[in-house]
Amino acid sequence: MHPAPSVIAFTTLSSLGFGLLFWLGLGFPPVTGWVAFTFFVLAYLLAVGGLLASTFHLGHPERALKAFIQWRSSWLSREAWTSLAALLVMAAFGAGLVFAATALVPLGWLGAVLSIGTVLTTSMIYTQLRTVPRWHQLLTPVLFLSFALAGGSLLAGMVHLAPWLLAAAGIVQLAHWYLGDSALARSGTDLATATGLGAPGRIRAFEPPHTGPNYLTRELVFVIGRKHARKLRVIALVLLSVLPILLLLLPFHHVLAALAVLSHLAGAACSRWLFFAEAEHVVGLYYGKR
Amino acid sequence: MTELPKSTDRKLGLVIDLDTCVGCHACVISCKGWNTENYGAPLSDQEPYGADPSGTFLNRVHSYEVQPESGAAQLIHFPKSCLHCEDAPCVTVCPTGASYKRVEDGIVLVNESDCIGCGLCAWACPYGAREMDQAAKVMKKCTLCVDRIYNENLPEEDRVPACVRTCPAGARHFGDFADPESNVSRLSAERGGMALMPEQGTLPVNRYLPPRPKDRIGEEIDVLAPLLAPVAEEPTGFLAWLDRTLEKL
Ligand code: SF4
Ligand code: SF4
Ligand code: SF4
Questions:
Q1: What are the structural domains of chain B?
Q2: pTM value?
Q3: B162, B181, B175: which is closest to B207 by C-alpha?
Q4: A141 with A124: CB under 8 angstroms?
Q5: Would you say the CB of residue B85 lies under 6 angstroms from ligand 3?
Q6: Which of A105, A278, B156, B205 is buried most, with the most CB atoms less than 10 Å from its CB?
């Protein structure tokens, strides 16, 4: 799958933002007044910034509101609803903290559920696609949730819990790669089932429909850059999990914490790039690629 | 409405005969020709005369080579357009309701004025039957020529999809799969019509007829072959002398 920069930015940033909102909703850290204001502004910049980046991906951003219509069948539509609800509820909760120094606890919990629910709906957009076997597995939502929880706890300054969540995210990431590598083979879809021409003998793609590329090959059959995938995996894992954990284990300092956040952000973006670049869409089989 | 209908009154679709398709791409051209000037936004081309031309097509013809255990390889041309699936994943993923499946005949269509161009339906289709037009930025797909098949302004014989009407080899057939007596149902039953990627669970309506085994030359001699042996024999006597003499000259 083509790793569109807008989609990578969207999923990475909004995952961090909604992860932070989740912890804020649960009352971590227990902030009020100006400090709360700063935390909420950061969370909203990340979450809303991510949502805006995702609209750049649309062919017709001016019609984006129509995406709210089909929540009964479409995960993309459900994502639109949960993100809007999360942002509204958490705004009310945040206003209580900032202006009245009161935590409206039930509202915070509702906001936390909606925030993490937004991450879940985002992950389901990818998970539901049987056409991309690497994404069509239980670990995909687990991956997205573990990243949001870990990144959010890092931003929320939860120095005791964050290392554990970062380690968990790293392990889930490894497992997702491991299972993902054999997903296409296990899916049972190959050129023989794609064409029905399996029986008479060995089949290979002889000629594509046109000599040049098309929308499908550009969007769904992205094979460039996979040769560096192994190296990038190591880099992603070190940046998103290992390095932030080490930085947090050192005696606490704000500079180290900020470095941990930046490292995690870079690692998460790298992991998200691989999530797309390594994903094989079954239509590639028709083109003799994968 | 992007929830799928429980069932459709008719199941219109195509039978594509891989045995007779000659790979001429005439259906590709007639499809583009009809659909660029009728239903919805035109099918644009980018850099059509430049170094890197590409464009939107609703129907494309691939070619595959099948190598049997013994004997010569066989080249099979493989036209591919939307299969108008009964459990169409492209429809349910659509957030706006722009993608829908018609209850009356099962045709899967895109309402272009509702399409936000998110591209998710193209991700959800396993067959590569949907392409985002790079000029109009809306999703394009085979309409089963919905603006021909019911079009009373066209002569009767033209009320079939453009690709079916055009095919010089008669490799594409149009009809109603819900009727077991229709041309397409019978063709598919007789020739073992195949569904593509059945494991994807999309329940495609279109069917592909497998290529028949090809003749093998030189493996067995026909019983009538001796009767076909050359009758001209070596000349004898005077003719043989003449032959040799002429040869020497
Ligand atoms: S072939 Fe693709 S676009 Fe057509 S109905 Fe099936 S899934 Fe949808
Ligand atoms: S590209 Fe258009 S038709 Fe396809 S899912 Fe998005 S809004 Fe629906
Ligand atoms: S039915 Fe019409 S739109 Fe579909 S492939 Fe044939 S010519 Fe193209």
A1: 12-209 (3.30.70.20)
A2: 0.90
A3: B175
A4: yes
A5: no
A6: B205
